[in-house]
Automatic annotation (TrEMBL):
Protein name per Swiss-Prot or TrEMBL: Protein p34
SUPFAM superfamilies linked to this entry: Cation efflux protein cytoplasmic domain-like, Cation efflux protein transmembrane domain-like
Membrane topology: Multi-pass membrane protein
Main localization (coarse): membrane
C-alpha cells in the first residue's frame, strides 16, 4: 500500500472517530452549535471515502483509453469535497434557524465541551499530517482534506467559545448564532477548495518558481542544442507535464539529438517530481530567438 493510500485510510479512521465524539457531545448537550460541528464531521467522513477512491484511481497506470494516466481523479475528489462542504453549511444554517426561533438551554456542557475538545485536538494533529505529507506526495486530494480539517479545528474552537459565553451570560441565542458563523466560515472554505481544484482540471501551468527551475534545467543540461522554445507546462495531481521544442544544428545526427533529449529528460525528472517530458526536435532554421538559450 502506497504512502498516499495509507494516509487516505487514516483519514477515514480519524474522521469516523471524530464524528463519534462530536455526535456524542451534541447528544449530551442538545447544542445547535455542537450539532453544526458534528454535521461538518459527517462531510469529513464522506470526503475521506471519496479521497480514498480517487487516490486509488489516480495511481492506475496509463492505458489505451487514458494514455496520459488517471492523475486528475484526485482533482474530482477535491471538487466533490468542496461541494459537500457547501451542502453541510446549508444544513447547519437550517438548524441555526430553528435555534433562533426556539432558543433552548444546554445540558451537560462540561462533558460536551471535553468531548468536542478531544475531537478538535485529534483533528488538528491529523490536519497537519495531511497537509504536510500531501504536499510532499503531490496529492491534491490529501491537501484539500487537510485544509478542510484545519477549518474544522478553527470552527470547533469558535463553537466552544460560543457555548462558554452562552453559559456565562445566559443568552442561549448565542448557541445558534455561533452555528451561523460556523456555516459562513465553512461556505468560504468550500468555495476555496472548489476554485483551487478547478484550476487543476483546467490544466493550469505550474507555479512560477517551478517554471523558473524548468527553464534553468533546460539551459544547463541542453548542451549541443541551440535553444528551446514554446515551453508549456500543466499539472495533474502528482504529475507535471512539460513540453517544449528543442532546436539543434541542422547537421546533427538523429542519434546525437536523441542523446540530448535523454539527458534533458533525466535532468527534469530529477528536478521536478512526477515530471512527464515531451520534446519536439527541430532544425536550426526553426529558431525563434525568444526562448531558452542553451548554455554550452
Amino acid at each position: 500500500m502506497s504512502a498516499t493510500l495509507k494516509l487516505a485510510v487514516g483519514s477515514l479512521i480519524v474522521g469516523a472517530l471524530v464524528l463519534a465524539l462530536k455526535a456524542l457531545a451534541w447528544w449530551l448537550t442538545g447544542s445547535v452549535a455542537l450539532l453544526s460541528d458534528a454535521l461538518e464531521s459527517t462531510v469529513n467522513v464522506a470526503t475521506a471515502i471519496a479521497a480514498l477512491v480517487a487516490i486509488q484511481v489516480a495511481a492506475k497506470p496509463a492505458d489505451a483509453t487514458h494514455p496520459f494516466g488517471h492523475h486528475k481523479a484526485e482533482f474530482f475528489s477535491a471538487v466533490l469535497e468542496g461541494v459537500m462542504i457547501v451542502i453541510a453549511a446549508l444544513l447547519i444554517l437550517k438548524e441555526a434557524y430553528h435555534g433562533f426561533t426556539a432558543p433552548r438551554s444546554i445540558t451537560a456542557p462540561v462533558e460536551g465541551l471535553l468531548l468536542n475538545g478531544g475531537a478538535t485536538v485529534l483533528n488538528g494533529i491529523w490536519a497537519w499530517v495531511l497537509v504536510t505529507r500531501g504536499r510532499a506526495l503531490r496529492s491534491p486530494a490529501l491537501v484539500a482534506d487537510g485544509r478542510h480539517l484545519f477549518t474544522d479545528v478553527l470552527t470547533s474552537g469558535g463553537v466552544a467559545l460560543g457555548i462558554v459565553l452562552a453559559l456565562v451570560t445566559g443568552w442561549w441565542v448565542l448557541d445558534p448564532l455561533m452555528a451561523t458563523l460556523v456555516a459562513v466560515n465553512i461556505l468560504w472554505s468550500g468555495w476555496k477548495v472548489i476554485t483551487q481544484s478547478l484550476s487543476g482540471l483546467m490544466d493550469e501551468a505550474v507555479p512560477d518558481e517551478d517554471l523558473t527551475r524548468i527553464r534553468e534545467v533546460i539551459s544547463e543540461h541542453g548542451g549541443g542544442a541551440v535553444e528551446a522554445h514554446d515551453l508549456r507546462t500543466r499539472h495533474a495531481g502528482r504529475a507535471t507535464f512539460i513540453e517544449f521544442h528543442l532546436v539543434v544544428p541542422g547537421e546533427m545526427s538523429v542519434f546525437d539529438a536523441h542523446e540530448i533529449c535523454d539527458r534533458l529528460e533525466a535532468a527534469l525528472h530529477h528536478a521536478i517530481d512526477g515530471a512527464q517530458v515531451t520534446i519536439h526536435v527541430e532544425p536550426e532554421h526553426k529558431c525563434k530567438h525568444s526562448g531558452i538559450v542553451v548554455l554550452d
